[in-house]
């Protein structure tokens, strides 16, 4: 019995620990640790910039994405929503680097600088908003018509139906969209450096340019750890947000 | 007992599609505490008619009066909150627990917490689900039949005087459906709601309805009690819809008690065989019903099958299961008569006290009216 529990535990935790062990080993092997210690203040600045990039663009994408997705499901928006959906679908197929380049090239036309953190934030935001819009729309649309009819017939107002019925029931799908977006943002954030957006991408690209594995690892390893951290936090967040009644299966925290 | 619900020349015309009248000048009155079943072939307008009552569908012309008030003058939301609503596909809210589902209307009506809890508790008891076990479960963890009971409980939660039920048992397998129907009728005896019940099944309409409203192409064909409709169908359509076996269907509308004769050939089992023999020849019968001193059924004695050495009736009694309680339907009664050789059936009360006996002739008499 105890052996079996132990085995289960090992089976669950082993991949996580192996990954972390591998990363840490890479980190120390190439001397990234020493480089980081030497440039500690810069390290913290880059971490901060990286977090700002991810959190702000994520926050805006969630707010705008969920709102837009919700508005699109309203009856009066039927025609507009199909147009928005088409745009969103096309937009989502543009690769991350392309989005950054587009921001760099396009922003000067509307009187903004194409270089710096703001363009990077704008690019990340636009790239991340698509899956959230799409999932919010699909999630609310997939709420059973019977459920809505019952709620309407019982005398719930449109607002009550939206906040007490539609959104909570669409939440697993919306959360899925947010997870996808986070993965996209976390994966794209290092590229922000290319248009002067700062963040840990600075060390990664510097390392590549100088063919210095130490500097590269000093940037790459924290990026990987941050990605894991966000995924974990989102998993926890999801548990609070998604009612047990609509959860499809237990979410593995990894 | 006044008129609770009154439809007055209610008409619905859907725009486009040649202005077909989905519901055409439908009028009927419903007394407080009555169940009215709206029945008819698909597309007859029964669901449309029902949904106009809580204004899920707007009325083109005509009036609906609830408890003396014209519903077109009421606030839609408040109107709906005062009407219980149960639909075929149940529509429980998957994100809420059973308790939260039932509590939704009381919460919207801003009842206080303690009153809501008490209501949830009581409703779960009424629909025969243990509150402690089910209150905190989610809809997906319940079977279809259980979910539908919650649907009914939720519909009753706001103490609405009127309930609308749209084929509430339509998606449930026949065995569970019959069970739920019986349970629901028992609940109704306690709560006495005024109910509009939509169904496409004439048997269900007969069973559940105090009144049946038969619709065809939006027109009211007949509005009558089940008994009236089965005995005097207004035209061939009603007769057809009620089915060729409508006389047999009427058997469901009567209890055994109503048809039975209360002079059964009874003998106390402590009497002597001699007394029994005299009684056999006196009333010219083959069977006597044996009872104990309290009048409860113990069995039957057959004139042609009395053991020679028997002294008391008790010694000659053979147990029998040719009996039914007085509240059973005549249909069960008839079936029971045919499954035994006695040619009659013993009618008893809940304590198994003999009340009377029932012959096929008695049933015929009752059906004649």
Could you provide a short overview of the structure?
Chain A has 254 residues and is mainly alpha-helical.
Describe what this molecule looks like in 3D.
- The complex is a heterodimer of chains A (254) and B (369).
- Chain A is 78% helix and 0% strand.
- Chain A is an all-alpha fold and 254 residues long.
- Chain A has one domain: MetI-like (MetI-like fold), CATH 1.10.3720.
- The longest helix of chain A has 34 residues, at 40-73.
- The relative contact order of chain A is 0.13.
- In chain B, the strands form 4 sheets. A 6-stranded mixed beta sheet of chain B has the order 6-7-8-3-9-10, with helices on both faces. A 4-stranded antiparallel beta sheet of chain B has the order 2-1-4-5, with helices on one face. Chain B has a 3-stranded mixed beta sheet with strand order 11-12-13.
- With 369 residues, chain B is an alpha/beta fold.
- Chain B is elongated, with a radius of gyration of 26 Å.
- In chain B, helix 3 (98-108) packs across helix 4 (113-126), helix 3 (98-108) packs parallel to helix 6 (144-156) and helix 4 (113-126) crosses helix 6.
- The interface between A and B is medium-sized, with 23 and 33 residues.
Please describe the topology of this protein.
The complex is a heterodimer of chains A (254) and B (369).
Chain A: H1 2-29, H2 32-38, H3 40-73, H4 78-92, H5 96-106, H6 117-141, H7 145-153, H8 158-188, H9 201-210, H10 213-241
Helix pairs in contact in A: 1-10, 2-10, 3-6, 3-8, 4-6, 5-6, 6-8, 7-8, 8-10, 9-10
Chain B: E1 3-13, E2 21-31, E3 35-39, H1 46-53, E4 61-66, E5 69-70, H2 76-81, E6 83-86, H3 98-108, H4 113-126, H5 131-134, H6 144-156, E7 162-166, H7 174-191, E8 194-199, H8 202-208, E9 211-216, E10 219-224, H9 226-231, H10 236-242, H11 246-250, H12 256-259, E11 266-268, H13 273-283, E12 287-291, E13 297-302, H14 313-316, E14 323-325, H15 330-338, E15 345-348, E16 354-358, H16 360-368
Parallel strand pairs in B: 3-8, 3-9, 6-7, 7-8, 11-12, 14-15
Antiparallel strand pairs in B: 1-2, 1-4, 4-5, 9-10, 12-13, 15-16
